[in-house]
Every structure is written in structure tokens, then in C-alpha cells.
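[step 3/7] fold_predict: job queued, chain A
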Amino acid sequence: MTDTTRNVLLYALIGLTGLLAPSLAPAFRIQMALLWMMILFALTWDLGGGQMGYNSFGNVLFFGIGCYAPAVVQRELFFAVEGQPQATGDLATISPAFNYFNGFALGLTLAVIIAVAVAAGLGSGILGLRGQYFAICTLGVGVAAGEIASGWDYIGAGSGMVAPIFPGHPSQAALFFYYLFFVLAVICFFTLKRLYASRFGLAINAIRDDEDKAEAMGVHTTRYKAIAWCVSAFFLALAGGAFGHLNNFIDREVAFPGITFGVWMVLMAILGGKGTLWGPVIGATIFHVTQELFWTYLLGWQRVALGVLIVVIVVFFPLGIMGWLREQWPEKFGETVDLEARAAPVSLGEGR
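[step 4/7] structure written:
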């Protein structure tokens, strides 16, 4: 069986499983929807942290923009939400479904535009920083965004705001958002797969390996770094819009969860293997399933267990699952190993 055939069968199996999962396990639709969201988180973080070597703790900024923008658009243009300022209603109709879906689509579009514009604007400035300075700066950006949201009355300030209710049965809402997250994760995966196989992928890998040499070779490093951040912002804004409406309530803790989603993005990519395409997918799947099991069987101790899991990931899986597999079976990853050279003893006088 060729590698191409094997890949096609793998994609078909995953796709079929993703399509049938809501029907096979309807009681777990929300949990499975969140699984696809976690995969999206890990993939978008790894674009910068793994492939490019820029560890960001501020990607929740784009997620938060995605949470708020669709809800605000629906409130202002289509219908009022109880407890919020009244909508203008210029585009409202007597159809709740029309109001909801058209407002949601328009809001997602606006969220993507704002998130990408913010990523491009901030990226041109802070992406000049490197290493721990960049990581700390992005952490500050995420914290600042949360503080702004908690003090801005227009979006509910500290009290938060209610997102419009899905026009249908709760099971239909869970199904809708499950498939939305599934489609977003699939599109993100294949978009990144294509980017990594192009000149763009070579450029960001060169930045990760040695940015100074990449600049000396004529690579416009700041431009590529900003583009990578914009790609992450694009998908995170869409994920934020879907999550905000799935949750039906948006406040600072939901939109800018730096101590949960912001940290989990990093952990999931590390667990699976940074700098690989499948590593974030595997890491997000294992992490999310393990977390759900902790909440089910270790209630009251779930945060302690999650903390232990974090320590285990960092200490025992520094290269991630994909890195460990690459070390064990390098030939499966296209690497040639000279077994005789590896087994031959090294002379003390060699190289003198």
C-alpha cells in the first residue's frame, strides 16, 4: 500500500467518523464539538509556536473577538436580547431563524475582519520581539484584552452579555455547532497542510531554525510572521463566534480564558509534538478525552489531576508523542538510519 493510498484511507476514516459521531453518540455532541474546537486550538497555536518557533500566550485575544462580535451584530441589527440595549432592528424580520443565522454569518465575517486586522497591526510591532520577551508580551496582550472587556459597558462589562438563543431544540443546536466545529477543524487542517508544503512553510521553518540566517538569505521574516499570526487569528475568530453562541453567555472568563484555553493550546501541541501536522491533532484528542474523564470520575480532584497531567506532559514528553514515535521508528517518517554506524564504537582518538 502506497503512502498516498494510506493517507486517503486515513482521511476517509476520520471524515466518516466525524460525520457519523453525532448520530452514534447523541448524548456527547457538545463534548465532541469541543473536541474539534480543541484540535483547532492546537493547530493554530502550533502554526506559530511549533512551525515558526514563536510561543504565543495571547492567541485568546482573537478567540475573544470572535466571541463578542457575532453577538453584538445580532443584538444591534436583528433583535434585542433580554437585559441588553435595544437593537435597531433595521434588518430584523418576523423569522427567528432568519435573524439568527443571517446575524450569525454577518457577525462571523466582522469577527474575522477585526481579528485579522488586529493580528496584522499588533504583529507588525510585537513580532519584532523574540523568545521569552515575545511570550510575555503576548501574555500581557491577552490579559489587557480581558480587562478592557470587563470594563466596557457596550459589551456588558463585568456582567457579560447573553448571546441569541438558537431557533430550535437544544439537540439541534448541539448538532449544528458540532458540524460547524468539525468543518472548521477540517478546513484548518488542510489549509495548514498546504501552507507547510509551500514556500511559506519553508520560510517559517527557517525562522524557527535561525531567524538571523533567514533574514540574511533574503526572507522577509516580519512579513511571514505576521501572515502566520493572521492565519491563526482567522480560524480562532470563527471558533470564538461558534463557542460564544454554543455557550449562550459571553463575559471576560468565557471570551479571554487565558488560564484555561490559553494554556491548553500550548500543552496540547507539546503533548502531540510541536512542529508537526498530526501532533496537535493527537495531543488535543488525548488531552480533551483525559480532561473529560477527570471531570467524570475525579470530581473535586479534577484540577489536581489536570495539574499532574500538565507536569507529566512537560517532564516526560518534551518532544511530544510524534517526537517519541520519530525516535522509535525513524524510517516510518522518511528518515534514513545507518544502523552499522549507530552500532559502531567511537574511537577516543577519532577527530584528532
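[step 5/7] annotate
Residues 25-257 form one domain.
The chain is about 70% helix and 0% strand.
exit 0
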